[in-house]
Amino acid sequence: MANTPSVELVSGFLQVSLPYSPDYVAAIKSIGYARWIAKDKVWVLPNSSPNIDALKKAFPSIVFGPVLRGEDKIEAENLMEAEVRKYIPAQRDVNITDFKFRTEPQWHQKVTFNFVRALDQSAIFLEQGLGKTKICIDLATWRFRKGQIRRLLYICPNSVAPQWNTEDVTKHLHLDFNRVDILEGSTKDRIKLLDKIYEENKPGYIVANYEALLGLEDYLIKIQGHDTKLFQQMVLDESSKIKHASSQRSRISWRIGKTVQFRNIMTGTPITQSAEDAFSQYRFLKDSVFGHYATAFRGTYLILGGFEMRQTVGYRNIGEFFSKLFSIGIRFTKSMCLNLPPKVPTIRYARLDEEISKKYLQLERECIAEFNGKEIAAPLALTKLIKLSQVTSGFVYEQDAAGERVATHVFKKNPKLVVLEEILDEVLPNKVIVWCRFVQEISIITELLQARVKSESKNGKKFSFAAIHGAVPQIERGKQVELFQTDLTCQVFIGQVATAGLGITLTAASTVVYYSNSYSLEERLQSEDRAHRIGQDKSVTYIDILATLFKGRKTIDHDTLDILKGKNSFAEEVSKALVHRMMGRVSAPTPATKQSVQTGTRKTNDEPMEAGDEF
């Protein structure tokens, strides 16, 4: 317990340490929303200027931690809020008459569209679920019709790229600008497709993941030097991926971006850990805003301390920083968009590698052989289908002839885990719930989070997580929930849906990830409502991670989610429907899909592959 009242900023909250005194306790309780955290023996409050002023008044001798001295982070957030509010219209009936939208935008999308089309380079800071991709599509089409661009290079995380071949994205594409080419395969395959795109010179989108840039840098720089460029606009989705200025990814993005006039970045928040996050993103976007050099940026806006003076402990000139940031950037949060639905569903895709795809197809063929021409027995179907679900999550339980588990085979690579890590990088330090079906999945995710605990500790930061599954004693489960709900450093809750999906409250999170789904509609609905219940004051985003095979074909993950959306209530019904779907997909005679959307026609990953083209 502290001898002198003190306060510091921890994970976005004011953390107050006080010597014990009934008068001190009464004083802190009089300040709005103060909570006592017994484990840490501290009080926590929301980080607002009124609470800072109230603490100064209640405890005149209070000592402020280094982050809160001078132009502190609280003031920074108030300044950011003031900048953001400049773009919110008094009336939300925004009328746009000079552009016809394919799908009707919400009011905040219209405001953002008007903002970004007025600038050659701009930042779209919209929280997940607010429709950044639609804005990008409308902006690109507007530029195309103005004769400013013919093609757009869209860089995104690996799990986002397949969304461009789904109805969630294609429904927004305009008929005159709707070709989509997704760069996949080896670098040689990608260059071959790019050569074809350049030769055909048809308008549309070129979609690639960040990793693809590493092998394409020299090719893109060379072709962009031609009189006719391959693309005239470049967009970085989830641009926090380049926040480290010294990374190869950041350097290559900056270099390629300089070949075009029109550039955009899109991410949920401009700052995830430190104001320095914005430097590299703006160096790509418009380097005249914050300059070319990270050292000069740090000297102007950051106060460094901690180990080897490398940690950000405070800010200076923060008013100037936010004025520059929002000179070409616009931000909306879910709380600002009051007309949004309380549940915001979205999907991320994980492409299985060749090894896992082969195992999946082997099990699929065995399942089809078992039921082909026969009545489907639900218990047996469940046994076969569960193995397919395991494989999409990166492991499979091996059983003996009697059906007893004898081993667990874990694949070397786990694409779902990679996607989950991408999501955590985007959302943290905001709290996240991750639902799993199998204990093995929880074990795999726990290893990932334990590595993050060590990494954050080395950087002088605290990070922890909570978990409930079948092996957690009943007496311990309540403690895990309380830890997640009240501890500011506990940012992830991992739950086995059959064990933790009922009777608990997890409203500290507004992002829910389904690493896998069970075949029970009740379990799905109950687990969704752990975050979406009384006490939740935000819209809740639900992210399903769905595995696709090596060459893009759908898996049991897609079928399970589709059937649950259809409100099938019993696992037996779901299992039979899944078998029928799988058999129909494999036996259908239609030709293989191509990873592109041609003008007026779309081929989807629903279509089976050609004979011999297994995945």
Low-confidence stretches: 67-71, 589-615
Major sheet attributes: 9 strands, mixed
**Can you give the helix content as a percent range?**
25-40%
Strand order of the largest sheet: 14-6-11-10-7-9-8-23-24
The rough form would be described as globular
Topology:
Layout lengths: L5 E5 L2 E5 L4 H8 L5 E3 L4 E5 L2 H10 L4 E2 L8 H13 L21 H11 L3 E6 L5 H14 L5 E6 L10 H4 L9 E3 L4 H14 L3 E6 H15 L8 E5 L10 H10 L4 E6 L9 H10 L7 H8 E4 L5 E5 L2 H8 L3 E4 L10 E9 L2 H18 L6 H15 L2 E5 L5 E6 L4 H13 L4 E5 L2 H20 L5 E5 L5 H13 L3 E7 H4 L10 E4 L6 H8 L11 E9 L7 H10 L5 H17 L8 E3 L2 E2 L13
Parallel strand pairs: 1-5, 6-11, 6-14, 7-9, 7-10, 8-9, 10-11, 15-22, 18-20, 18-21, 19-20, 21-22
Antiparallel strand pairs: 1-2, 2-4, 3-4, 8-23, 12-13, 16-17, 23-24
Which labels suit this protein?
615 residues; alpha/beta; nine-stranded mixed beta sheet; six-stranded parallel beta sheet; 24 strands; 40% helix; globular
Short note summarizing the structure:
This protein is an alpha/beta fold.
Describe the structure.
The protein is an alpha/beta fold and 615 residues long. It is 40% helix and 20% strand. Helix 7 (187-200) links the parallel strand 8 and strand 9 (204-209). Helix 9 packs parallel to helix 10.
